[in-house]
Amino acid sequence: MSEQGKIVITGASGQYGRQATDMLIAKGLADKLILITRTPAKLADRAAQGCDVRYGDYDKPETLAAAVAGAEKMLLISGTRVGARVVQHKAAIDAAAKAGVRHILYTSFIGIDDPANPAEVRHDHIETEKLMRASGMAWTMLRDAHYADAMLLMAGPGMMATGKWISNSGDGREAMVWREDCVACAVAALTTPGHENRIYNITGPDLQTFDEVAALVREITGCPLEHVKVDDEGQYAIFDAMGIPRRPVDDQYVGGIPWNSDDMVTFGAAIRGGFLEIRTDDVEALTGRKARSVRRMIEDNKAMLIAAANGAPQPA
Ligand SMILES: NC(=O)c1ccc[n+]([C@@H]2O[C@H](COP(=O)([O-])OP(=O)(O)OC[C@H]3O[C@@H](n4cnc5c(N)ncnc54)[C@H](OP(=O)(O)O)[C@@H]3O)[C@@H](O)[C@H]2O)c1
After folding, report:
1. Could you tell me whether strands 164-167 and 198-202 are parallel, antiparallel, or unpaired per DSSP bridges?
2. Is residue 283 part of a domain?
3. Closest ligand 1 atom, CA of 125?
């Protein structure tokens, strides 16, 4: 792929960024990758693999010009400070446009066109998309559905330990998707032609309620798991009791969950209201293979879920 220009990736040390980097390196593109982090030592392994690791901080826009210099494309992986990311993303978009980046791809979120969608993440993503459209660069919106990993692998162990999946998502349906499938879509959009100025809705294969997912967990693991429906206040009370902050705190994880409760409660309300009831075949269109299912994620992680149900230690 000698014609591939340089690709700069923000959030390269995070879960999404690491998977994206792995897939791009597997395509022989290590020397085409510029990886941005606030702590370059975190990515020493990537430098050893031939990637160009550079310091950059969304909160220090002056650091971003040098960080993005020489790139043809940018994969802007959304930051984690929900509700306050637009300023951060603007700094990255401005730096990219100024440095001559030709095409910017962004990890956005499904269902954001509807202004009635209560999910707090909607604001950050729709505003970031507007900035991208106005930037003069070609853009690609990778609108990811809810990650099945976030539900089953991060929150899953805690749910299995208690046998209760407490949520305010009611009987809403969504097509949860594997993060890895989302990353594979991003890699396809970065390395194949024809994705400029396109919006993709990257979803799993099945629209399901949490009741249905809990039934799958029971069927596959043989362990009890009940979806307990609460209202928004009830959901806040649970998260407050766990010590999860209402507003985001950078780099803070509580019980293995990195998110803040305003984000999660409004997210649940969006599911309940049907705003995330979107299912597409965009994973297959982009990658050539079908999106993997929630059932398969439960099957692949059956031993971990059973161990959690039987009292295995939980993440701090
Ligand atoms: N669709 C869904 O259900 C869903 C679920 C989870 C996440 N997501 C999306 O995916 C994104 C990435 O998630 P993830 O799990 O990969 O996150 P993560 O593992 O927590 O990584 C966060 C990344 O953001 C970078 N970062 C944080 N603050 C920064 C700053 N001020 N300047 C530059 N970089 C900064 C960090 O880099 P350094 O620490 O190295 O600087 C790190 O690489 C999230 O923000 C969210 O939008 C979606």
Report:
1. unpaired
2. no
3. 47
Number of domains comprising the chain: 1
Residue 77 lies in a domain: yes
* Sign of torsion over alpha carbons 5, 41, 154, 77: negative
Say yes or no: CB of residue 17 within 6 Å of ligand 1: yes
Angle 137-142-144 from CA coordinates, rounded to 5°: 155
Q: What is the pLDDT of residues 133-185, one digit of tens each?
A: 999 999 999 999 999 999 999 989 999 999 999 999 999 999 999 999 999 99
Instruction: Give the nearest ligand 1 atom to 58 CA.
Output: 32
pTM here? 0.95
- Expressed as residue numbers, the domain containing 79 is 7-146+178-202
Residue 155 counted as domain residue: no
CATH of the domain at 13: 3.40.50.720
CB 42 less than 6 A from any atom of ligand 1: yes
Strand partners, 200: 142
Which tokens in the block code for residue 89?
């993303």
Does residue 98 fall inside a structural domain?
A: yes
Q: pLDDT for 233-247, tens place per residue?
A: 999 999 999 888 898
